[in-house]
Amino acid sequence: MKQPLDDYIKSLRIVRLIRQKKREGLIRSRLTGAAAVKGDVIIFLDSHIEVTEGWLEPLLGPISQNRTTVVTPIIDTIDDMTLRYHFGTADLISVGGFNWNLQFTWHALPEREKKKRKHLVEPVRSPTMAGGLFAISKKYFNDLGTCKLIGTYCSRRAALISIIDDSGMDIWGGENLEISFRIWMCGG
User: Fold this and answer.
1) What is the percent of the chain with per-residue pLDDT over 70, rounded to a whole number?
2) What are the tens digits of pLDDT across the range 133-157?
3) Between 62 and which of 3, 50, 69, 129 could a Cys-Cys bridge form, CB atoms 3.0 to 4.6 Å apart?
4) What are the DSSP calls for 5-45, one per residue?
5) How many CB atoms lie within 10 A of CB 166?
6) Looking at the DSSP assignment, which residues form a beta bridge with residue 45?
7) How far apart are CA 15 and CA 138, in angstroms?
8) Which long-range contacts (CB under 8 A, 24 or more apart) does 97-102 make?
C-alpha cells in the first residue's frame, strides 16, 4: 500500500504512520508505536479490529479515574459464513482466563463480580485479557517495563514475577498473558 496509505494517513491529520526498517513482528512493532505515542493513553488495536461509533470514550473513562486500569472493550463478532454482525451486550460479558497449558480462554463473569457492578456498562475485573485490543496509560505501560525492566518497578514483587526484555519476543502467542501477569503483579 505504501504511497496510497501515506496519502490517506496525511488526510487524517491526527494519525501518524510509523514504518519499521524491516519486519519486526508484533511485540517490537507495538513497542515502536508505544514509544512514539504523544498522548497520555496508548490504544493497541490489531489489524483485524474495526471500531464503531462511540468506541473510544468508554476506554478512556476508567483510565482517567485510575491510571493502573487497563481496559479492553467488549468484542463483537462477525459470522464467518454469513458476515452477519453480532452485537455483544453488556449483560453477557465474559472475562479472560487461561488453562493449565497457559492458553487464553473466555469465561463467564463470576457471580461475585456481577454483584459488585452498579450498572451494566461498568468495567469488570479480569485476570487476563485478549492481547489484540486494549487501552492503557502510557505512564503505566512504561512502568510495567516495556523494554528492559529488571525489577526496578514493583520491587517488592520482583521475586514473584519473571521480567523479560519484551523486544526479545519473536513469535506471536502468550504476550497477552505476559502483560496480564505484569498488570496483576504490579497493582493493575
Assistant:
1) 85
2) 899 999 999 888 743 443 444 444 4
3) 69
4) HHHHHHHHSS------SS---HHHHHHHHHHH--SSEEEEE
5) 20
6) 133
7) 17
8) 97/127, 97/128, 98/127, 98/128, 98/177, 102/174, 102/177
pLDDT at residue 102 above 90?
no
pLDDT at 20 over 80: yes
Closest C-alpha to 41, from 11, 62, 19, 12: 62
Of the candidates 155, 11, 173, 29, which has an alpha carbon nearest to the alpha carbon of residue 103? 173
In a domain, 4, yes or no: no
pLDDT of residue 92: 76
Report the chain's mean pLDDT, rounded to a whole number: 80
Domain count, the chain: 1
Phi, psi torsion values for 82, nearest 5 degrees: -105, -10
Which has the higher per-residue pLDDT, 165 or 81?
A: 81
52 - beta bridge partners?
none
d(CA 176, CA 132): 8
CATH (domain of 65): 3.90.550.10
Specify which residues 96 forms β-bridges with.
Answer: 106, 128
- Identify whether 30 is part of a domain: no
Is residue 17 domain-resident? no
Q: Which three cell numbers stand for residue 46?
A: 490489531
- Which residues lie closer than 8 Å to 66 by C-beta, 6 or more apart? none
